[in-house]
Amino acid sequence: MPHDSRFRRELGQQLRVDSVRASAAAGSGHPTSSMSAADLLAVLVDGHLRLDYSDPSNPDNDHLILSKGHASPLYYAVLKAVGAIDDAELLTFRKFGSRLEGHPTPLIPPTDVATGSLGQGLPIGVGLALAGARLDRTGYRTWVLCGDSELAEGSIWEAFNYAGWAKLANLTAIVDVNRLGQTRETMFGWDLDVYRDRALAFGWHPIEVDGHDVDAIDRAYDEAQATTDRPTVILARTVKGKGVAAVADQPGKHGKPLDDPDAAIAELGGERDLHVSVPHPEKATPHTFAAPGAAPPRYELGEQVATRAAYGKALAALGSARGDIVALDGEVSNSTHAEDFRAAHPDRYFEMFIAEQQLVAAAVGIQVRGWVPYASTFAAFLSRAYDFVRMAAISRADLRLVGSHAGVSIGQDGPSQMALEDFAALRAVHGSCVLHPSDANQTVQLVAEMADRRGISYLRTLRGATEVRTPADEPVHIGGSRIALGPDATDVAVLACGITLPEAIAAAQRLAAEGIRARVLDCYSIKPLDRDAVLAAADECELLVTVEDHWSEGGLGAAVLATLADAGRKATVRRLAVQGMPGSGTPAELMHAAGIDADAIVAAVRRS
């Protein structure tokens, strides 16, 4: 009997029982964190959530994000209640090979994103809400269940800030204020007024509610859906471990199964087999954007063009060719040149301001709906959002990141802006690719290739202009490279990327005057590296020299050494990379001081 208070109370108890059962079967889990929010989700799925669990791809489905991902037993108990899984699968929780992992991932539909690293669900929900309001333009709502402990995360407040500013009325956050964290009481315990005042300050509509009063919860959800000028946050006072005296509101019970699950189940009224018919949305047709077409930009050999400028023009052209391309930027679009896309396609551009966690999270949320986002900022500042990138890989997200102004070659701005870790960080992300084009024509082709690549893609662009050496019609692709000079040279191979490519060519020309023949390999794809080209250089040349504007750890040199080791090849390799902490200066001064310019390459070869 749907929408009946007694049914909802019984459903909440079933969700508690099943959370206890799943955790007991696994011998681990977070049942008490699940029990506090059981009534909140019972009411949500019984009458408010519109989601066709038999058709997760329905474009007008609501989206439910479990930001407090450790409450996965509750989430899986809901999936059982709505018929998405059966009881046998529920009891495979945390078992090897089960879809029901310790924290939810998209392996179990209709889970949009992986959660478990706290503070991520709400920022991703902002992205989904933006997609609904401005891209799909359909009626779906994004619901995010948050824990009160994660409200200490700065990323949560980036989300509150942005959603309030953007007036995302299709976003509802539900905060399970159960007072207890992992080791102690949270900052504000059950003081809902503190959270209310903060939500008001950020432009949200707050509703305080008893999180175990199903009628009050129902009214709160109705009020949230009726609020059309701002996002809503429901602040629900709950009891951790609700319903079982041995754990209810007791510290020290976090993250462990109950000591006596059978007694707890009996105290909760025993097992139940209630089923919920979740309302299905009507099939909506998402909005599409016109794609009149545009030829990608082409650059003449010898032109001096910054790859960041080529990125902006290439993305704008790609947006004209494809209506699914979206751009986001961290309020540096005049430097990254994302402003070119904004000027051409303002309806598909999102200014995310100086909030890099929200920038990446919004891109993750937007790609859930099949859009193709490119998120850009200074490469150094992507490190602030690294956990979001890591989690995006677990979400099987398709994400395109673009970092400009990297390396000592940016010059006078100094080391805080130099992003000397980006290759290593992004190479370490599962399934990623890392690209560093040396000229504008390479950039144009790689930007286009990124659009259809699955997983995490990262493109580093340059602040300063470089000479166009790649013909516009020469194929450039992820996993490729090009011989920029000396294809038949066998004395030494210099492997360079980005800003070090012109230095390598200058060094090769100087070495030629001394009778040393150098091959210069432009490794514009660092991951995947062009294995065949690297192995050919190792087999055919007496010495390999790698040179990069990056720390020596984890970048191009490390990728070359790994390729040689994996292939069982022996080669003499000298790695040139940034070693000491740089300061301010001209690009030429800093590259020389770092030992990654033509002088350093020549010296490295002469030492052989």
From TrEMBL:
Pfam families, per database record: Transket_pyr, Transketolase_C, Transketolase_N
MF terms in GO: magnesium ion binding; thiamine pyrophosphate binding; transketolase activity
Keyword annotations: Calcium, Magnesium, Metal-binding, Thiamine pyrophosphate, Transferase
Family: Belongs to the transketolase family.
Protein name: Transketolase
Alphabetized PROSITE patterns for the sequence: TRANSKETOLASE_2
Domain Transketolase-like pyrimidine-binding: 305-468
Cofactor: Ca(2+); thiamine diphosphate; Mg(2+); Mn(2+)
Keyword Transit peptide attached: no
Species classification: Bacteria, Bacillati, Actinomycetota, Actinomycetes, Micromonosporales
GO cellular component: cytoplasm
Assembly: Homodimer.
